[in-house]
Amino acid sequence: xxxxxxxxxxxxxxxxxxxxxxxxxxxxxxxxxxxxxxxxxxxxxxxxxxxxxxxxxxxxxxxxxxxxxxxxxxxxxxxxxxxxxxxxxxxxxxxxxxxxxxxxxxxxxxxxxxxxxxxxxxxxx
Length: 125
Prior knowledge:
The chain has about 120 residues and is mostly beta strands. The protein has a single domain (about 20-110), classed as Rieske Iron-sulfur Protein. Helix content is about 0%, strand content about 35%. It is built from no helices and ten strands. It has strands at about 10-15, 25-30, 30-40, 45-50, 60-65, 65-70, 75-80, 95, 95-100, 105. Strands 2-3-4-8 form a four-stranded antiparallel beta sheet, with no helix packed on it. Strands 1-10-9 form a three-stranded antiparallel beta sheet, with no helix packed on it. It has a three-stranded antiparallel beta sheet with strand order 5-6-7, with no helix packed on it. It is globular. The model is unreliable at about 115-125 (pLDDT under 50).
């Protein structure tokens, strides 16, 4: 029996220098906006540009450590997973990122976009 091996397709979206340290940059895709975040240690993460609470633009939030705080209601989101930090509950979609040299690429075909709202706690779905 032959097995099918799916190779990850990486789409170059720019340079790490295009993303401010402790800041973000938005990449527009057919499936929605993706926010790229850069930490103080030059780590790069990609999340759906929508807070799981009320869809606030995470790209306009404050990056601190490996988290971003939503500018609308101060929800704190883990950059690596898209998960809201307790006591809030919810998740925004995340996209695999690859940095080679200064080049940043996304695996858009493997994006885990939520297109959803908060779970349980707030009732704002």
